[in-house]
Amino acid sequence: MAEVIKPLLLDKLVSDLSGHIAGARVNISGEQVVYPIHNTIVSGLSVRKYIYITETQAVGKQLLGAALLDVEGNILADQPLTVTKNDKGFLITFEFVLKLEVSAGGV
Fold it and tell me: Does the residue 37 lie in any domain?
């Protein structure tokens, strides 16, 4: 069977997915704090976005959740957390794996 989806399309879709995420918001003991994206790793069809909370930020407070935002502040993805921040840095990771399905057909 012929290859329907070309690698270029997959590359464009992964890049587009990654490009929509502009920042993050972390719920720290009920307060919504905005953070930049610390790092992005694109590997194959996987996009990982990292949020880093430094050693001194939020020590002793609870991290209750994190959300990824677009440039307009809309939530694109979120995940609950229940972590008490200690005096070490804390890395929050979101991973997206693109999966496409093609159905053969025609008229």
Answer: yes
